[in-house]
Amino acid sequence: MKCVHCSKPAVIGLQHGALCKIHFIDYFEDKVIKTMNKYQMIERKDNICVATSGGKDSLTVLYLTKKYCEKYDIPLTKIRALAVDEGIAQYREKTLIDLQKFCKEQAISLEVVSFEQELGKTLDEAYPLINKSAQKKPCNVCGVWRRYLLNKYAAKSGASKVITGHNLDDEAQVIIMNIFKANTKLTGRLGPISGIECSDYFIQRVKPLYFCTEKEVRLYAFLKKFQVEFTECPYSKEGFRHQVQAMLNDFEERYRGTKQGVINSFLALLPQIREQEKGNVESVRECARCGEAANKEVCNACQMKEMISHD
Ligand code: SF4
Ligand SMILES: [Zn+2]
Ligand SMILES: [Zn+2]
Questions:
Q1: If both were cysteines, with which of 36, 74, 147, 301 could 69 make a disulfide (CB 3.0 to 4.6 Å apart)?
Q2: How far is the CA of 83 from the centre of ligand 1 (A)?
Q3: Which domain covers residue 19, as residue numbers?
Q4: Cα(62) to centroid of ligand 2, in Å?
Q5: What is the pLDDT of residues 94-150, one digit of tens each?
Q6: Strands 204-206 and 161-163
Q7: Is the shortest distance between the CB of 141 and ligand 1 below 6 Å?
Q8: Domain match, 12 and 134 both
Q9: Which residues neighbour 209 within 8 Å (Cβ) at sequence distance 6 or greater?
Q10: Are residues 173 and 80 both part of a single domain?
């Protein structure tokens, strides 16, 4: 395969043709910058919190956020990285080491908060207990607590935007999961800029890698020589998401463009979904226990914390 622009050996074949290393990096960075501009993901007044984990997506998004700020003369002191240590043995500690190194090299300040310190137990310790009382899978517990700590600590640091490394594959998986579970309310919160309602309690989340496939992000991180562990979370095979991911990968292999099709259809429908859900949004209030955002008296994070507190 040769690059469609310069005839050098190609590193990837895309729908519009094959690209060499240099042209792929240009194409990828250009796509991310255009996405950020189109959706006005970063404005001059913003304080930016990048949600990171040390994986390929978060290092890529952190690096390109910095590049974006440099391009538009936004002071780099406006960017902070925030990571959550869930306490997953043989996995998270490795990615956090990569992250600490990366942030040091890039001169970006990093804060790490942990489930253990904030909620009393690591995910490895907490999930079997929560599973016993509420049949929750590790990813359910992890997702609720991680979102909770990200929102809490992003707010504490004065952030007005949270940038996440979600890519096109991640989003396509969640759209399909929500369709299978008839979860329209959650579907309305997806999109390049998430959330139906702007609220004092939730900081807006934005996804610069929204139109980049997992394969593209992986290749970009590899070509840029980011030091990342390409290992998977030991719990990743347990969830419903894993099956949806396998199904979408299988369809993509047989019918190229399937994932992009899911995203395009979703984006075409999103304005109607948000309009419809506007009237159904439950009023957000303060959790009676922790004071963070809740849609009932006690937030989900505190309810799960309660399940482990007697042990
Ligand atoms: S795969 Fe599940 S448990 Fe592992 S980090 Fe992701 S959400 Fe958390
Ligand atoms: Zn080329
Ligand atoms: Zn709470």
A1: 74
A2: 14
A3: 1-27
A4: 26
A5: 889 989 999 999 999 999 999 999 999 999 999 999 988 888 889 999 999 999 999
A6: parallel
A7: no
A8: no
A9: 32, 35, 57, 60, 61, 165, 166, 167, 168, 217
A10: yes
